[in-house]
Predict the structure.
Amino acid sequence: FMYILFGNEIVDSEEIKDIIEGQTPFRVDKDLSKGSKREDTIGFQISIDIEELNNIIKEEYELNDMENEELFDEYMILTDEIGVDLEELMPEGAILNVRSYKWDNSEDRIKAVVAVVPEELGEMKLMDITKRLLTQVD
């Protein structure tokens, strides 16, 4: 795990991992912070259980009436939406991006990457870093 310089504070990626796993439905599968090739970036491969998503989808749709493709899209969108809420748990002045990329059928989880950077880096840089992280996952 890495120490990351975040504005004026030093953040331990292990602490961020514990926050994510303790306060959200996500599991951290891998620390990708080194892979960002930046000292000011926290990156993780995260995943969420399909059951967790089904419980949310059931509130609006009849699961049995949905095609697999439709369900897949819904899972991806929902994962990204839930991921946005992670920002509230991050260090002061952090912005983040979550991008789901895969339905892992063997584990029945949706996999995603999350990149967390200081605000001053800006959205464009955040998108670049997210893309870089996506190239480093299965």
Remarks:
- The mean pLDDT is 92.
- The helical segments are 13-23, 50-57, 68-84, 122-134.
